[in-house]
Automatic annotation (TrEMBL):
This is Stress-response A/B barrel domain-containing protein. InterPro entries: Dabb, Dimeric_a/b-barrel, HS1/DABB1-like. Homodimer. SUPFAM superfamilies: Dimeric alpha+beta barrel.
Length: 154
């Protein structure tokens, strides 16, 4: 009888342990694959170019707020497993190209160590999702973006 109750207790404890392990939001099986990389071997770095068409009626103070918000994403976008920033760099500014007649006002270049990190940024990252929500009223159009991997032409 004592062996049977010990076995039942051990079984219940094992089930609880497995349940906690599998339903932990930081556990690898519950997090999308594309954020698990430390970028050592998954894919090569990727550059994401975000192009903005800010409404002409937008005040300068709001443009600075938008630009600062974009630049702050480098520190605000936190990898859910490592719990540290995963964006390699962000650069950007106002458009000064004389040949541009399309209404493009600003662009930002965001570099990631891996395509998987870029995918997490665009599809899941709560800081980026909030940024998109915060700036949508200032934009004439959706954010235009292009992505490329250095040296890959096909």
């Amino acid at each position: 009888m004592k062996n049977r109750s010990s076995l039942v207790c051990a079984g219940v404890a094992l089930i609880l342990l497995i349940t906690v392990f599998l339903y932990n939001p930081r556990h690898p099986f519950t997090v999308p694959f594309y954020i698990l990389s430390d970028a050592s071997g998954l894919s090569s770095p990727v550059t994401h170019v975000a192009i903005f068409k800010i409404k002409p009626s937008t005040r300068a103070a709001d443009i600075h707020k938008l630009a600062n918000g974009m630049m702050e994403l480098k520190e605000k976008c936190i990898h859910p497993i490592w719990e540290r920033p995963y964006i390699r760099s962000i650069h950007g500014g106002a458009n000064h190209a004389a040949e541009t007649k399309s209404g493009i006002t600003h662009s930002f270049i965001i570099e990631f160590d891996a395509v998987e990190h870029r995918d997490y940024y665009l599809l899941t990252d709560p800081a980026y999702q909030k940024f998109q929500e915060d700036v949508k009223d200032y934009l004439d159009d959706d954010i235009i973006s292009i992505d490329f991997q250095h040296g890959k032409y096909t």
